[in-house]
Amino acid sequence: MKAGLEWYKHEPRAFLDGVQGLGPDVIGAYIVLLDLIYARGGETKRDDRHLSGILGCSIRMATSLTDKLIDLGKLSFEGDLITNSRAKSDTKSARNGYETRSKSQRERRENEATSNKINDLGDKQETSALNREDKNRIEKEPNGSKSGEPLPLFDPETLPPEPTEETKPAAPPKPTARQILQSTLRRETADAVVKHRVKIRKPLTDRAAELLAEKFGRCEDPDAAADMMIANGWQGFEPAWVEGRQRQANTPTTIPRRTTAGVLADMARDYGETNNEPLQIESRRDW
Asked: Does residue 95 form part of some domain?
């Protein structure tokens, strides 16, 4: 297990801006998973059963919350480990800084010992309480490690246990909102719908994804219907909206009605152009 952090920097304004509109369940799960990632050195194995015990919810709900955070890009998978880009960078920087300080202290101790040997001072006593404390820290052997090795940033035994095969959930994970949409839409279109709802600060719930998938499926072209929803900035969708627009587009232009005089004038003109003589219309007195 990598050495983790006992504490990490938390920026309230940036965090609140990043989780706005996600809901209390998702935000709570996000904070707990971040703490586990920081405590375990920037990454941790996925354990929905353990997370459900911390949150006091069902395993199914813990699985759904973790999947939603991954869909939103707050967490990511690397192999079989869950990580967060900022947490990984912070723990790596802290580890490098600690190793640099430890190396500096060892070199100082070695230089002091060499200087004492040259001046025939032997093992003189420490001149200050600070030097004695540094010596004890460097020469201490935590957890059976060899003298001089960097100390862990905290005691790994105080961490929650690593997940094992026995603690893994037996039931398959519940499909995410993106996977539900993919039952009707192409993968690219489903991704676009999920990102659109996040952009308008209305993240998709599993139930909302089921309703949208059912309504898209009632259209002749589900992907075109989803593109229409995104293009118009709609939060939801109804198949009747597509049918209404199609009827409007297919409505023929109204042709003005012709008068009787106009029809007779056209007939006379056409007759004259064909026979080179005027059309004779017999006058009847009984009209």
From this structure: yes
Inside any domain, residue 287: no
| Residue 204 domain boundaries | 177-250
pLDDT digits (tens, 9 = 90+) for 6-17: 777 777 888 888
Number of other CB atoms surrounding residue 35 within 10 Å: 17
Same-domain check for residues 243 and 127: no
In 3D space, the residue among 188, 237, 187 whose CA is nearest the CA of residue 211 turns out to be 237
Asked which of 100-109, 150-159, 188-197 is least confident by mean pLDDT, the reply is 150-159
pLDDT over threshold 70, residue 168 = no
* 125 is a domain residue: yes
